[in-house]
Q: What sequence folds into this?
């Protein structure tokens, strides 16, 4: 057993109240110690920046191949994706997915995406009030990602967001939110299996290239649906969360918006600060392969540790004034909002391209972003807005 002096907590991070506003619970866990036992879920939680960063960069001790969720029963069903694998298999399959998602590979899409972003912002200015999530955050993933993956025009597209949401919910405990997604996960699995068959995806698309890799023997046929799913989830929920939070934060902090308009060179840093302050991923777990200290806590092999990215990104031990939205923050690029290490979000370059393009369009067209009160989404793994009224003043 681990040392008995590791603090314990009855905090439940998966109640509705904690999901809507998790930051008091995160702070309480950080104050208890570098590692805290969450009694209700039989896992250890690391809520401070240093410990989360350390674990993410020791993938040999903190492995992902046994699943990255809270529930062992569901972890066993996650085999095959790059997110839930370890080297050397991880290096192979992540490379097959990431080759399309590197900044260099995405360069050919820059002009198209910027033109698309300009058009969307012009339309939203003309519309008047709109919703930050459905009309802004979701617009890009649904418009572009299915075409890049080669999905058929008449199948699956209207379900992509629901499938991605169900997949991320399954990384949490076996609660009502997770169970409600089981039919969606079955539906998604059946769809991805059909798309794994040669000829069902558009030729020369990202997805069709993965199918060709399987035909060439580079990956096993039975793992192909999970790898196609690797494109789906990172391209959807995390991007939607970051883009929606972008409008809310700039609307709630008009001084920061004025600063960005006066210096658009801050756009990349501003995007990092958005993801730091409102991290799209609450966190994933890792399984410990050997006895190891994390911070001052001595943990034993077989322990499952929940790494709380959203808490680490507001750790006052690492960040100065962590609750403040500051687009000039020098260390903003060190955030853990997309994870870090070998399992850093494979789709983050695409998410950044979306965010930078939309901020550029907004800076060039919008004097003021007016927002109402956000309604936060109830989701086990994704921190995001559910609804937010917005008006863009040209």
A:
């Amino acid at each position: 057993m681990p040392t008995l002096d590791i603090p314990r907590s009855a905090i439940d991070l998966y109640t509705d109240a904690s999901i809507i506003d998790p930051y008091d619970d995160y702070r309480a866990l950080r104050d208890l110690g570098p590692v805290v036992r969450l009694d209700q879920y039989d896992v250890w939680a690391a809520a401070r920046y240093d410990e989360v960063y350390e674990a993410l960069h020791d993938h040999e001790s903190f492995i992902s191949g046994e699943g990255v969720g809270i529930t062992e029963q569901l972890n066993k069903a996650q085999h095959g994706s790059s997110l839930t694998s370890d080297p050397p298999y991880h290096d192979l399959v992540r490379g097959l997915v990431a080759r399309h998602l590197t900044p260099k590979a995405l360069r050919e899409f820059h002009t198209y995406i910027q033109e698309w972003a300009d058009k969307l912002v012009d339309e939203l200015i003309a519309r008047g009030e709109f919703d930050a999530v459905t009309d802004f955050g979701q617009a890009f993933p649904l418009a572009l990602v299915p075409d890049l993956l080669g999905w058929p025009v008449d199948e699956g597209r209207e379900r992509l967001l629901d499938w991605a949401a169900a997949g991320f919910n399954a990384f949490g405990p076996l609660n009502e939110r997770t169970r409600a997604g089981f039919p969606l996960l079955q539906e998604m699995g059946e769809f991805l299996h059909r798309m794994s068959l040669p000829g069902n995806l558009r030729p020369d698309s990202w997805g069709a290239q993965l199918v060709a890799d399987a035909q060439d023997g580079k990956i096993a046929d039975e793992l192909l649906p999970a790898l196609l799913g690797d494109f789906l989830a990172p391209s959807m929920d995390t991007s939607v969360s970051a883009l929606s939070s972008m409008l809310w934060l700039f609307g709630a902090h008009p001084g920061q918006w004025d600063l960005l308009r006066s210096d658009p060179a801050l756009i990349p840093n501003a995007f990092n600060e958005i993801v730091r302050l409102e991290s799209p991923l609450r966190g994933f777990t890792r399984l410990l392969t050997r006895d190891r200290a994390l911070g001052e806590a001595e943990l034993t092999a077989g322990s499952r540790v929940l790494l709380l990215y959203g808490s680490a990104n507001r750790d006052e031990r690492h960040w100065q004034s962590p609750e403040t939205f500051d687009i000039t923050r020098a260390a903003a690029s060190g955030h853990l909002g997309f994870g870090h290490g070998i399992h850093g979000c494979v789709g983050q370059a695409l998410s950044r391209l979306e965010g930078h393009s939309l901020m550029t369009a907004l800076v060039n067209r919008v004097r003021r972003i007016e927002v109402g009160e956000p309604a936060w989404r109830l989701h086990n793994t994704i921190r995001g807005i559910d609804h937010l009224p917005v008006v863009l003043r040209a």
Observations:
- The chain has a mean pLDDT of 92.
- Residues 81 and 230 are 6 Å apart (CA to CA).
- The two ends are 61 Å apart (CA to CA).
- The first helix runs from residue 16 to 20.
